[in-house]
Amino acid sequence: MRKIFLYTAILLVSFVVFNSCTKEYESIESVDKAKIEAYIKKNNLLMKDTLGFYYQIIDEGTGNFLKNTDSVLYDFDIKSLDGQVYQSNDVYSNNGTYVGYVTSPGAFRTVMYKLKRGGHAKIIIPSYLAFGKNGNGNIPSNEVIVTDLKIFKEASQIELDENRIKAFLTANNITNAVRHSSGIYYQVITPGTGTDVIDDYSTLEVKYIGKLLNGTTFDSSDSFSTTLNGVISGWRTILPLFTSGAKVRIFLPSKYGYGSASTGAITPNSVLDFTIDITKVTNE
């Protein structure tokens, strides 16, 4: 009898705990829904409810609707319903993958099917479909998020980077930049005066400053010694065109920098802007 009583008690406690969890989950779901619907009404939005999240197409874009096998370059911001910014759109950086690989948040892929290149949608995602009770980085627990999802009109990263560089050069009135066959642009500030040819085995002493196109400095040095084997591929491509005494500014498409990786201040798929002063070249 004692064993039967014990088992019955355990089952009862388990039922109560499970039922409480279910009610808590349903409570979060209903609370999120009420918050979202109040936000939509207050801001006079025309949003569709799809699988628990809400969206509005701001601009459908042009061409064909995106499908699973299409590569897609996109950007998005993340805000709370009360306007707190957790992540901003960045015109100089972007995410990139195949539509079918977009999984976080899952609402993005569902909305992408309704967009074309250059398209733009506003999405509101309840917390349980976004980052849940654990949050993510600076996004707190159980936060409903509002996002503007923007699809770039370009289909390839190299095309997008080229357009970013050209727009930057125009905006900053840089008219003497030369386009290398690689797609890298460079501006000669001071021609070189040395006679040593730069190759993979040369030791270079340089001063440099590295920036993003938004003006953020991510690295610099007044005295840096290296061979071409020790630097990013953009340097390896362009510096052999010069000799000691040269000062050059180079604009690197992301594939010649850090690609889709994020490191320090460098965000994924960022064009890099380097000013490099080659002070000495040594060949042994």
Automatic annotation (TrEMBL):
<dbReference type="InterPro" id="IPR001179">
    <property type="entry name" value="PPIase_FKBP_dom"/>
</dbReference>
<feature type="domain" description="PPIase FKBP-type">
    <location>
        <begin position="69"/>
        <end position="155"/>
    </location>
</feature>
<keyword id="KW-0697">Rotamase</keyword>
<protein>
    <recommendedName>
        <fullName>Peptidyl-prolyl cis-trans isomerase</fullName>
        <ecNumber>5.2.1.8</ecNumber>
    </recommendedName>
</protein>
<dbReference type="InterPro" id="IPR046357">
    <property type="entry name" value="PPIase_dom_sf"/>
</dbReference>
<dbReference type="Pfam" id="PF00254">
    <property type="entry name" value="FKBP_C"/>
</dbReference>
<dbReference type="GO" id="GO:0003755">
    <property type="term" value="F:peptidyl-prolyl cis-trans isomerase activity"/>
</dbReference>
<comment type="similarity">
    <text>Belongs to the FKBP-type PPIase family.</text>
</comment>
<feature type="domain" description="PPIase FKBP-type">
    <location>
        <begin position="201"/>
        <end position="282"/>
    </location>
</feature>
<keyword id="KW-0413">Isomerase</keyword>
